[in-house]
Structure formats: structure tokens, C-alpha cells
Amino acid sequence: MFNAVVVENQEGAKQAHYRELSDDQLPAGSVTVAVSHSTLNYKDALCITSRSPIARHFPMIPGIDFVGVVQRSEDSRYREGDSVLLNGWGVGESHWGGLSQKARVSADWLIPLPQGMTPHNAMAIGTAGYTSMLSLIALERAGLKPDAGPVLVTGANGGVGSIAVALLAARGYEVIASTGRLDEADHLVRLGATEVIDRNTLSTPGKPLGKERWTAAIDSVGSHTLANVCAQTKADGWVAACGLAQGMDFPATVAPFILRGVSLLGINSVTRPYAERVEAWARLNAELDLSVLEQLTREVPLSEVIPVADDLLAGKIRGRLVVDTSV
């Protein structure tokens, strides 16, 4: 038996409950994991509150990432007692996810927990930090270097944005942080931002081309924000698009791309090949200051996840929420 957050659809009414389940209710998969920690991400909160159709079927256990210890394995790559982590692959959407004390998944979706990384820190990083690193890797492979000019990070107080600020600053980049919470500017400066701007300057309809302000950007917001970010990116610069906090739409023109040579890089953190996932996590393990994680992280027990989801969607949460499944 184990406890989990379960979203159910009862005659069209979707509601989340914290309840006990039996092992024989776990879905198909080659590896069963005793989950020690998960996270509460924006997408998880949408699923729990049913404000967006995240779950593909019901009942669904949300949680797009988790870390834990292999309890049973039918795959030679993993043995009982191995520490593993998972990001993406549709868990928490089409397959039962990590807001649970147990999970059963395909071995193909797992990677080993990096040497020396604690389960708590792995989930303090979570999908948000992993996505930030994938964005940074994509920008650097495209040609970005620390001396190329400022890099904008939108949604800088969120999970993806805050870790992106810290990662960029640690590598010597000049970071411009965009946020809707200017009262948190000092916090962003401590993470490494050299300038903090109001998100309202980017979140409303703008011109097809604006003043060139940054060489590159990591955007987790989408919609008008992403359009304006592209319009104000310097010639031959790059924008990594990795989120949709403002919306899925992209009300832009081709002007930044054909008149300035701006490149828009799409970041898919869900189905990356094994080698790319291992590389991203190895870099996170090596480059992210653990003291930064402490600034960014709040831990909540699994039993209290449901009410906290509303706070996350209301913008009341700064940084990352780590879920301890033992309580």
C-alpha cells in the first residue's frame, strides 16, 4: 500500500484527493520505484486544480518528475537499491506520476541519480532546472558565449527562470531578469542578475521590431512576452523558448527572423534522448551552487500538496517546491 495525490473524474467533475492505493493498481512498467521526493510544478498544479486539461485519462497521479530507489526491476540496466530520477515522458499526464510514494515506469525513462547529488537537491532542481540547463546548452551550442552580451530571462522568479538566472550568472553571463514581482528584485540580484525589469514592458502587444536590447534569452512565458523578446533581440541573437506561463499563442511577425537573423530555439524537455538527459544533469550537478538551491526551495509534505497548488497558480510561490513523500 502507498499514498498518492489522485485526480479523479466523477461524472465530469474532476477533483484531487490524497488517498491510499494498492500496489496492484500501479500501471504497467518494467521498474517499480519507491519515490522519496517529487516536486510541485506549474503543470502539476494545473492538473490538480483541473484548470487545464493536463491529464489524458483518469484516475491520474500528477507529478512530472520524481527521484527514488528501485524497488523492483525487470530491466538489466537497473537493480534493486539503485537511486534513479525521472523527468518528463508524459508522467503525470498520460502515465501515473511522481506525487506518490510509489511509481512504476519504463526503464527507458529513468537515469541514474548523479553521484553526490541528494534526492532533495535533485528535486529542488527538478524539471524546471533541467529545462533551464537544456536551454543554456542549446544557446551555447548555437554560439552564445559569456562575452557576447546580456541574456534575458523571463519569468525570473519562477522555477525555470530562477535557476536559469543562477546558471547563467555562474558561467559569467550578464543577466537581465524579467519579473512581475519587482519587490523580489533583491532576491534576483543575489541569484546573479545584473538588471531587473518589469514584465509589463514585455507582456502586452508590441511592435514587430523593437530596440535591440539583449543578445539571447531564455523564455518560459510564451505569448506576447515571447513575441516582444524576439522583437528586441540583437541581430544574429538567439531565443530559447521553453514554457507557456502567459499562453501557448505566439502573436509575432517574421521581422526579427528575416531582418535581424534572430534564431528561435525550441526546448523539448519531455522526450530527450538518454545521453542528453545525463549530460544536462551532470552539468547541473557540477555548475549549480547548492546555496542557490537553498534560497530557491521550500519543502512541503505530500499530504499538503493539494492546497499548495492553488498558491502556486496564484503566483504566491517563489522558486521551487520540493515534495517529501514520506509525510
TrEMBL record:
Domain of life: Bacteria
InterPro entries membership: Acrylyl-CoA_reductase_AcuI (IPR014188), ADH-like_C (IPR013149), ADH-like_N (IPR013154), ER (IPR020843), GroES-like_sf (IPR011032), NAD(P)-bd_dom_sf (IPR036291), Zn-ADH-like_protein (IPR051397)
Molecular function as annotated in GO: acryloyl-CoA reductase (NADPH) activity
SMART domains for the chain: PKS_ER
Pfam entry (one): ADH_zinc_N
CDD domains, A to Z: MDR_yhdh (cd08288)
Domain Enoyl reductase (ER), chain residue ranges per copy: 12-323
UniProt cross-references to Gene3D superfamilies, sorted A to Z: Medium-chain alcohol dehydrogenases, catalytic domain (3.90.180.10), NAD(P)-binding Rossmann-like Domain (3.40.50.720)
SUPFAM superfamilies: GroES-like, NAD(P)-binding Rossmann-fold domains
Entry protein name: Oxidoreductase
UniProt organism field: Pseudomonas putida
